[in-house]
Amino acid sequence: MTEQGITTRIVHSDRHGGVEHGGLHKPIHSSVQYGFERVEDLIGVFQGTVKGGFNYARQGTPTTAALERKITALEQGVGTVCFASGMAALSAVFLTLLRAGDHLISSRFVFGNTNSLFGTLGELGIAVSKVDAGSVAAVEAALRPSTRMVFVETVANPGTQVPDLAAIGDLCRRRGLLYVVDNTVTSPLLFRPRTVGAGLVVNSLSKTLAGHGAALGGAVTDVGGFDWQGWPNLFAAYRRGDPAQWGLTQLRKKGLRDMGGSLSSEQAHQIGLGAETAALRVAHTSATALAVARFLAGHPAVAAVHYPMLESHPQHALAKAHFSAGSWLLSFELRDAATTLATIDRLRIPIKATGLGDTRTLVIPVAPTIFWEAGAEGRAEMGIADGLVRLSIGLEEGADLLADLEQALPRR
Ligand SMILES: *Cc1c(COP(=O)(O)O)cnc(C)c1O
Known about the structure:
Elements (H helix, E strand, L loop, with lengths): L5 H7 L26 H9 L14 H14 L3 E5 L2 H12 L5 E5 L4 H12 L3 E5 L4 H6 L5 E7 L11 H11 L2 E5 L4 H4 L9 E5 L13 E5 L23 H13 L6 H33 L4 E5 L9 H7 L6 E6 L5 H7 L4 E2 L9 E4 L9 H7 L7 E4 L5 H11 L4
Parallel strand pairs: 2-3, 2-4, 4-5, 5-6, 10-11
Antiparallel strand pairs: 1-7, 6-7, 8-9, 9-12, 11-12
The chain binds pyridoxal-5'-phosphate.
Pyridoxal-5'-phosphate (PLP) binds next to helix 4.
């Protein structure tokens, strides 16, 4: 039998996991404590000799574990650890896998809060170089003897820059570097970072996977591209058993158990429901986003449109080669930047709000909001123009959005 499609597998996954009473969904397990008939089993769960057991919800529940299996299937990985948000997942990666004195190379074009987190890493003695990862040469030029990790976003939020994903993967493999890819904007429905040699994949589950703007979550998936036996930053206690699990074990123990950014069963259930329709939603929102991008690109009041599936995008060929569609994220700038805020106010359908991957279209002027704290210099470094407007396309009919944009944009 040929391998089943991803939606076929996701919508049937809970019922194949031994769910009680024939229920088609994994129940929401709200217990914090898990009890045992025999104290031997309690000890076994603590020592990791009883597989798949639970002891305290901060380290996971049967409901979060069911979601972890879904994400692992989506990313075709070896395992996943879920967190309370995408930022909790990213914090766990950087803070539990890097040490003072280590060097991290990151794309210059990253989510604003990730960039802010890099400031914290600097204070803790972890050096961060920010490069234009559109060319692998820039990554290579930043290498130091202390470099341990390379971090990129598949499509940068909000500028939509695309890194040279496969060439960076090759470089990381040759140099023994851990390649961490934030797949949030593309999601595993449009792109699998394992195909470009990623070691770890981070997803904010709050966007495409949850999909309705009603749940926060994050995940780190080990997709098998990294050999943990050569990684110096693992605690001895986690260098036991199958080396493919060592990184995930450290992330779960140090990043989840000790730092405590745990996903609740209720949120995990909500995200699992969203995951069932994610492929359908992202196909719709990607098609509408492309139509909106084309419309804006042809409008006389618009100076620039940033969307990877537009032929004019600087990394269009890379995006075409790797992503099956362009996702819901696009951004644009008006010719007369002074008309930007009034234009946004004239829009009737898009909601003036931050956030991405909702069922509703969201619009936000980037510089005075999500990138305000970075300051003018920080924004210039990250390529954020003062008049940049971000759109996250929702499930509304495309024709309605185009008509709304038409009436809101300046006449010339
Ligand atoms: C939203 C986002 C995050 C953070 O995710 P939260 O779930 O909001 O914490 C990280 N990376 C990217 C690219 C994002 O868009």
